[in-house]
Amino acid sequence: MFKKLIEESTGRSPWLFHINAGSCNGCDIELVSVLTPRYDAERLGFKLAGSPRHADIVVVTGPVTKQSLPRVLRTISQVPEPRCIVTMGSCPQSGNVFRGSYSVAGPLSKYVPVDVDVAGCAPKPEAVIDGLALAAKILKEKRGRMK
Amino acid sequence: MNLLGNVLSYQHFPIYAIMVLFMGSFLIAAFGENRRVRNILALLSITASLIFSLLLINPVILRGEIIGYWMGARSIAGGYAIGIALEVDALSLFFALLAACAIFVSGVYSIQYMSRDDNEKEYYTLYLLLCGGVMGMVLSGDLFNMFIMVEILTFAAVALTAFRNTARGAVEAAFKYLVVGCMGSTFILVGTAMLYAQTHTLNLAQLAQLVPGNMNTATKAAFALLFVGFGTKAFIVPFHPLAADAHGAAPASVSVIISGVLTKSGIYGIIRITYFLFQSMGLGTMQFLLVFIGSVSMFVCVTMALAQHDFKRLLAFHSISQIGYVLTAVGLCTALGLSAGLYHAINHTLFKGLLFLAAGAVLHETGTTDLNKLGGLARKMPHTTVLFLIGALSISGVPPFNGFASKWLIYQATYQKAVESGNIGFLLVTVIALITSVLTLASFVKVSHSVFFGQLPPELEKVKEVSWGMRFAMGIFALLCIVTGLFPNLVTTYLTEPAAAAAFSVQRYIEAMGFDGSAAVEILAGSFRYAGVWEPVSWLLVLCIALLAVTIAALAGRYDNVSLCRTAAGDSKYQLFYGGEEQSFSQLGGDDMFWGFKHNWRGYFSFMHRLHSGIVNDYALWAVADLALVMLFSLIVL
Amino acid sequence: MDFPFIKEAISQLFSKSSCAMYPAVPSEAAPGYRGRIVYHPELCIACGMCERVCSGNAISRSVEHLEDGRDKITLTFNLGSCTFCATCADFCTKHAIEFTGDYHMVATKEEDLLVRGSFIKAAPKKKAPAAAKPENCSAQVQTEASGVKPREDGKPVNDQSRCVYCTLCAKKCPAEALTVDRTAKTWTLDEDKCVSCGTCAQVCPKNCIIMG
Amino acid sequence: MTVILEALRYLGYVLVFPGFLFCFLAGMLLCGIDRKLVAKMQKRVGPPILQPFYDFFKLCGKETIVPAAAERISFMLAPLLGLAALVVIQLFIPVFSFTAFYGMADIIVILYLLLIPAISIIMGGAASGSPYAGVGLSREMVTIISCELPLVLVLLAVAKTVGSAMGTGLCFSLSDIAEYQEINGSLITRISMLPAAAAMLLVIPGETGSHPFDTAEAETEICEGLLAEYSGAALGVFKLSHAVKMLTLSSLFAALFLGGLGTGILVLDALLLFLLCAGITAVSISLVHAVTARLKIEQIFKFYWTVVSLPALLSLVLAWYGL
Fold first, then answer.
1. B436 φ/ψ angles, rounded to the nearest 5 degrees
2. Residues D85-135: pLDDT tens digits?
3. Do B306 and B442 form a contact (C-beta atoms < 8 A)?
4. Spatial distance between the Cα atoms of D99 and D137, rounded to a whole number of angstroms
5. pLDDT value at C143 more than 50
6. What is the pTM (predicted TM-score) of this model?
7. Which among B144, B330, B295 is positioned nearest to B226, based on CA atoms?
8. Of residues D101, D149, D229, nearest to B577 (C-beta)
9. What's the CATH number for A18-145?
10. What domains can be seen in chain C, in order of their start residue?
11. Are A134 and C104 inside 8 Å of each other by CB?
12. Which pLDDT score, from 0 to 100, does residue B73 have?
């Protein structure tokens, strides 16, 4: 029963940790707007965590610059299992307009398995909510597969 | 057989307890070249002293006798005491037991702690002299002998402060201590002389009989001189900077004696003169004097401690802060207050001894006590850490350790005093005491973070746990801390209440030496009932059950499902979160940890900073100014 | 310290929330929102303009040679690389690219973010029978093609045999010196306005503008 | 036989009613109500009331990472100790006329016991070795110092009021305070106690470390401070402790100022206590949270030692002169 309780709860309280990997701040602002009274992601249990140790979902924005790459990977590795990695906006998926720049090391999927891509430049808050809800579902599945 | 029986009569034990220490000192000075001989001699003498003190519990505390002992069969001639007398009532024995315990543990600790120093022979000679001085002072029945013993212990303490004279500041600290300590001794001497001129006797019991009836300007001045003189020994404000310097420089085992025992002997002196010699504690103004000085010591020293960044200096300031508690409680002049103060005196000796020994252990292994250079020692010295935490929680008054039990009594005593006397000032004292307690906690949080938790500086990677002997010594103190905290009723019933009762029965004290005590001013102790309840054992039991329940529930909830770093190489998963950066050494300095607090008090702190100039001339001036004020006060009110 | 918002807080306690209850209540994107790309391959002429103007390199074109000699041309729009600037749609003369208000672009696989469309281009086949009738004609064309000589004054010349009249050169000309009429299939240069910058030659998808 | 029954009864107190289970359920619900109310006040929908339960169980299912630099035993023991200490405090706080453990602790003891959870979180944070925890630790300690003065004044004022009314001069015992209120009505009805009650209401958010006094756990600047390295079940226990602390402090408030409302039936009393706690939380935690922005640490200190301490002192002086 306890295990079922945990599994049920996992999908209902995903906490986010946001990493800016060289983003233009467009996606960052959209992510924060998800938490405002207008969209209020907290009603779905989402919460922005302050430390990667508390997080379930890592949201990466930005094209993953060479400077940020080791930091991003280190921070992602510090998130306890089960975890879910969400790329937000086009940049971390492909590099977008920054592709081919000398300083861009992306896309992120070259280095870590990405679970959910939210496209858009920047995505609409509704799309972010969609993406996070999908991530929460994946999280629950991952939790079910543990142990 | 008769002779042996005579020799082993408990009447002689007080002088044995003193003399074994002095004998040990002389023997080590004479034959202490060999390390083993020296250690055995030192251990023998401190153990013997402890045993003799313990054997006195039965007659003095349980049976309530007062041992009046005349040395060399001389006693009273022509109505005046002419012999050297020892007089042991429950109060004296209380302090003697305290001293013997601390001396024993610190002596055991010294054996390994001092093994890296040279001149060990001189160390033990001086150490036992210091101990003998303390023992002699608290058991003496003679004011002049008290002065002699004070001189012995002051000079031994000065010499021991400068013992590690290669260390920075040691000689300077000793010099400051010497100057102000000698001023204090001189005050005591002058006070004694003035009393002698007025009463023609030096015996404490006879003085207690004669002085209160014959108060004149000279005796009033003598009171001020004695009070300030013993105040110097207790390092109460304004003599606290000396303690900081002396503790910072002295070896930890000596700091234990200076803070745990020497200051107590100062308190003992103050109790003797205020309660016995002058019997002036019944006066509201005299209570005000003690409580005022006590509260100021309590608060000023705890704030000074918050600003320190040296482990031992910080402990030194706390030491005076705790002495402030004792003095405040003693100054209340109620049975509860005195009992609480004496309880706190025991506890202070225990936890402060433990903390100084822990500081010594850190110094012994790392070579520094600077809070900004230490950190993360918990992984290298786990036992020391646990012992230190017991001491830190005790001094901060966290239940169920002993500091809480005595502070709890002190709060009640001050509040009850406020209610009884209708004086709202005592209420302020309760509030100050409570705030001081939380500030104490704050500074020990700072120490535990800066020394034992946090990150290990790379240069301290090779630190090892201290040897078993040192841990054993600390363990004794820690055990006593827990025991006195868990069984407050036993401590109050068998130690502090008899001692407090002794302080209120001056008449018996006088009569025990064969004088007429009928004229003594009896101070009414008054009865008391606790305003609250505190059952540490049951509380601990409930806490254990709750902890067990929580632990079982947590383990059932896979609390033990932790993932630990298995590889030697730095797996980034197990590194600390540094905002994504690679883990590097970063330890919050202990210096300015509570700036949110200090920022609001910056005026006060900068004032204090300017006041504590570190110049010995200033401190001497403070002593004189203090004397002048107290003298003025006593001339007016006595 | 005062609490200036205490009244609002209490009054809002009893008023309706201002939340958009998104997943429960679907929400439309604002008019003009540029969301998911819809590609109409039947309109496309594979001029390649979109691919060229795309800043995010989101558009790729692949050509598959079918057995019957025709080419199957596939255009792929990678939404995961798109900045949704809509320049491609702007430039598309055939209006084959459309930006919709659909913002649900969430995927677990990269595949899901690709918008594909393909059409079979018969153009080379169409030309082959036309060239087959008069044999010299094709040679003529070829000589014509090679015959277009660059002008000596450095102004552009159009090889009209290859031009598809996509008007891109006219759109791009900074001096507005070019006029292209798609219906009349004319390409005219206003020599007074031309500054010989070469933009038309650079942007021409068919490389039929020749500069000196 | 009776001894065993007696022991079982006390075990039941520890595990079920004022103890573990009650603390868990009531504390979590209180936390959920608080979050919902704050959301309402900010014109949001807010999380479901059961959200803290979801959070807790989710955290139980997560991996608990112990950093290599941490002192392992203290790191893992600290959350449990903090929670156990809080549960024990709850046992000493009377539920109207009912006290689970009668005659074991008074308000001074409670004052000190409230330090133990704070100390345990400080020890846990310090043991993790994180520099963020170092900063958090410093702030947490200053917050404790800040709250201490008004809390002490409030408690002394109550002790004096009840004591002089009962003729003993002062009364530190919580069950005596509860008993007094059973007979003479709630203390909050006395004018001299109103400022103290107001001060206590402002002390509660500081002690629990909720907004705007949460500088110690500021997630946006110092990565949750002391909790920065905690993950999984250990973090869950800390979150639970936070919830229980809300319950403890609000029921302390109820015991000090709102006594004498009990019905005498234990189940109803428990329900009433919970409702009162919810009301107190709504005013002192949720409302203050919703209308303020996070203070700086030196502002917290100043706020508590002036704005909050003054009414408490006023109350004490009024009580002193028997008003």
1. -55, -40
2. 888 888 888 887 777 777 666 888 888 888 888 888 888 888 888 888 888
3. yes
4. 34
5. no
6. 0.83
7. B144
8. D229
9. 3.40.50.12280
10. 34-123 (3.30.70.3270), 148-210 (3.30.70.20)
11. no
12. 63
Question: In this complex, is the C-beta atom of D9 within 8 Å of any C-beta atom belonging to chain B?
Answer: no
Asked if A127's CB is within 8 angstroms of C56's CB, the reply is: no
Do C and B make contact via 3 or more CB pairs under 8 A? The reply is no
The Cα–Cα gap between B412 and B397 comes to 14
List all residues of chain D from 21 to 60 with a beta carbon under 8 Å from chain A. 35, 39, 42-48, 51, 53-58, 60
Residues of chain C with a CB closer than 8 angstroms to some CB in chain A: 17-20, 22-23, 27, 29, 33, 35, 55-58, 78-84, 103-108, 110, 112-113
Nearest CB to D303 within list C1, C6, C18? C1
Q: What angle in degrees, to the nearest 10, is found between the helix axes of B143-161 and B120-139?
A: 150
Nearest residue to C47 via CA among C77, C73, C68? C73
- D291 contacts in C (CB within 8 Å)? 3-6, 8-9
Contacts of D309 by beta carbon, 8 Å cutoff, 6+ apart: D149, D150, D153, D199
- Residue spans of beta strands (DSSP E) within chain C: 37-39, 59-65, 71-78, 97-99, 106-107, 114-121, 157-158, 178-181, 186-189, 209-210
- Residue B618, CA distances (Å) to B173, B236, B242, B321 in order: 14, 16, 12, 21
Put simply, the answer to whether D51 touches A53 (Cβ < 8 Å) is no
Give CA–CA dist B618/B606, Å, rounded.
17
Q: Kindly tell me the burial class for residue D220, based on how many C-beta atoms sit within 10 Å of its own C-beta (0-12, 13-18, 19 or more).
A: exposed
Question: Which strand (E) or helix (H) includes residue C128?
Answer: helix C123-132
- Token representation of residue B524: 């009414």
Q: The tokens of A92 are what?
A: 């971390």
Q: Are C79 and A90 in contact (CB < 8 Å)?
A: yes
B in contact with A (at least 3 C-beta pairs within 8 A): yes
Least Cα distance to B90 among B525, B408, B508 occurs for B508
Minimal Cα–Cα distance from D254 to chain B, Å? 19
Give the tens place of pLDDT for each residue, B77-112.
777 777 788 888 888 888 888 888 888 888 888 887
Rounded average pLDDT over B484-501: 82
Tens-place pLDDT, residues B627-637: 888 888 888 88
Q: Report residue B209 as tokens.
A: 């009989």
Residue B401 has pLDDT above 80, yes or no: yes
The pLDDT value recorded for residue B190 is 92
Scanning B555-584 for CB atoms below 8 A from D yields 557-559, 561-565, 570-571, 573-579, 583
Percentage, residues of chain D above pLDDT 90: 0
Chains C and D touch (3+ CB pairs under 8 A): yes
Three-state secondary structure readout of B217-263: HHHHHHHHHHHHHHHHHHCCCCCHHHHHHHHHHCCHHHHHHHHHHHH
pLDDT at residue number B189: 92
Name the helix (H) or strand (E) containing A118. Answer: strand A116-118
Is the ipTM value over 0.90, yes or no?
no
Judge whether A21 and A65 are in contact, CB under 8 Å. Answer: yes
